[in-house]
Amino acid sequence: MTVNNDKVLNFIFHILIAIQLIAVAILYANVNFPDPPQQKISSLTGLPVWIAASPGFTAINETVGLIEYVAAFLTGALATYCVYIKLKNRRPANTNPIVSNPDEISPVDGQDTTEEIVWTKMLFDTIITGYIIVTFIALITISIFEAGKLWSAFGIYHNVLELCLAAALLQNGTGTFNYIMGLITTVVYSISAVAITSQLDWYWDATFFKFQGLILDFLLPVLFIRVALQTHRQRQSESQPLLGGSSVNTSPLAPQSQLNCLVIAATVHLLGNLSNVLGNGQTIPAIIFISSYFIAFPMYTIYVHQAVKTRTKYALPDTSFYHFVLLILWAASASAITVLLSFYHV
């Protein structure tokens, strides 16, 4: 039944991608790109920023500014707490039950499993801690410099850590990601994104930066949901009663509540970004965007808190290179649709 369900979902996913690609073509062919408004000049740097120089946008910026400072303080406090609990709960190397080779199959209950099991401690909670830290830096710098070409050099690392999270969740089956390739990818990605942003003219620079960031925002909730479902399946498989006996679950797999934290955090962050992009700088969408940080990053912190203390594992679903390309294509087309729709409300 599970195999049949997977085939149905796979078919639906292919249809969805085809529909999204058609939607991108239709939206692009019919959108009327307006002339970009005059940019506001930063009072601190004297450089143009990604805000229109109009009284309305100035008022919006002042309204949202206080919430940005509060969000920055919150993420800074959360980052400090994550670092603290990781240092406090750090174990000696010889007693830390970490799988040394993520590609090895881990035995469960004395039998080999058919799916790869990876320790949560395998840099994953460290990546999330780093993600919270760079988000704090991005919020601080955007409050100082305001969003623009200069800020993109800092803001890109928020996206880079999202890329690291995605890479950690795509290790099983692609054969694409390892630590060396991950480092090369993140360096090339960050330099390329900032270089392209710096060379584009106003409105397209901000548009491109939103587009590349939304790709990862769309991708992460889906990847977290896939891991949550695979871990749930693995847990159910391990809990089946033997020889008619009662079911006893002794699995070290991560509890569903931990994985739900990741799903909720990534989903809320995506919804906040969608509100901001589609809202085109309006007050309410901008407030929704900033307010999403008050939900998403505490949820990430809860996950780090639980993961560091329990040292539980999660199951990675198999991702072939073909399905990896499909996931990227889906996320990129979804991001393109969102950005194009934003031009229909300018």
From TrEMBL:
* Sequence intervals crossing the membrane: 12-29, 66-84, 123-145, 151-170, 177-196, 208-229, 284-303, 324-344
Keyword terms, alphabetized: Membrane, Transmembrane, Transmembrane helix
Its domain of life reads Eukaryota
Keyword Chloroplast appears in the UniProt entry:
no
Its recorded name reads Patatin-domain-containing protein
Recorded source organism is Gigaspora margarita
